[in-house]
Amino acid sequence: MEGQSRTKVVLLACGSFNPVTNMHLRMFELARDHLEDTGQYRVVKGIISPVGDGYKKKGLIEACHRLEMARLATENSDWIIVDSWESLQPEWVETNKVVRHHYDELAAEQNDDDVDTVKYSKKRRINKQVYCFEGSSHQKRRGCPQLMLLCGADVLESFGQPNLWKQEDINEIVSFYGLVCVTRSGSDPHKFIQQSDTLWKYRRNIHIVHEWVTNEISATHVRRALRRSQSVRYLLPDTVVHHQAEEVMGWGCELKTNQTHFKN
Ligand SMILES: Nc1ncnc2c1ncn2[C@@H]1O[C@H](COP(=O)(O)OP(=O)(O)OP(=O)(O)O)[C@@H](O)[C@H]1O
Ligand SMILES: O=C(O)c1ccc[n+]([C@@H]2O[C@H](COP(=O)([O-])O)[C@@H](O)[C@H]2O)c1
What is the pLDDT averaged over residues 83-105? Predict the structure, then answer.
C-alpha cells in the first residue's frame, strides 16, 4: 500500500489487570508490529481499560489500585494510555458497551463536518455481507480511526462459553470494530475461529498475532506468587512492583505485606 494512506487504528484492551503485567504491555507492542507489518494500518494509540469493581471477580482488588498500577506501568510509553471510564462505572459494563463508548469518544474528536450520515440502523455491506445493527445510533465517521479490541486468545475462546457473551455483542465487535488476538500457550485461536460460524464469517476482521516467545505470564501467576511471598520482579514493571509493596499491600487487600525484597 505504498503511497496510499494507512488506516489509523486505536487498540483497546479490556480486562481485570489485577495487576497489570509485562505481558499486557507486550501484547500492545506485538499487536502494533503485526498490524503495521501488513502495510495497511498505522497504530496511533493503545488504551488499557481496567474493569470496574462491579465485575466482582474473586480476588479482584479495588479499581483505584488497578488503575494506578496500570498508569505507573504505562508512564514511559509514548502511545499506550490508561482510561478510567470503565473502572469508574458503578455496575459492570459489558465489553461491547465499553468499545462503543471509546468509539464515540474517538468520533467526538472528529470534526462534525466529517460525519458520514449513513447510520448503522441501515443495512450496510461489510465483507460482502449485508449487516445491520438495529437500534444502534452509531454513525461511521470519516477520518475516525478504526477501533479494534485487543485481547489474548483466552478471551476469544471465552466467546464460546455458554451464557457468557451476548451473541449480538460478539457480532458487533468482530464485524464493525475488529479484533486483534494474541496467542497464549494452550490456545488455538485459528481452530476456534474455524469452528465458529460467526467468527469464520468475519475472519478478515480478526487479526491473530503469534507470540513466538511462549510464556505463561498471567496475573493469576503473579497473585499466587504474592500470596507465597515470592518475588514478582521482572514479571511486572518495577514501578508496579513498588506500588504493590508500598501502597496496595498496606490497604488491607489480600496481598501480603512482608515483601520488602520487592523494593530492591
Ligand atoms: N500472557 C498473555 N498472552 C496473551 N494475552 C494475555 C496474556 N496475559 C493477559 N493477556 C490478555 O490481556 C487482557 C487482560 O487480561 P487480564 O487482566 O484478564 O489478564 P490475565 O493475566 O489473563 O488475568 P487473570 O490471570 O487474572 O485471568 C486479556 O485479553 C488477556 O487475554
Ligand atoms: O461483555 C461481555 O459479555 C463479557 C463477558 C465476559 C467477560 N468480559 C470482559 O472480559 C474481560 C475478562 O477479564 P478476566 O480478568 O475475567 O479474564 C473483562 O474485561 C470483562 O469485562 C466481557
Answer: 98
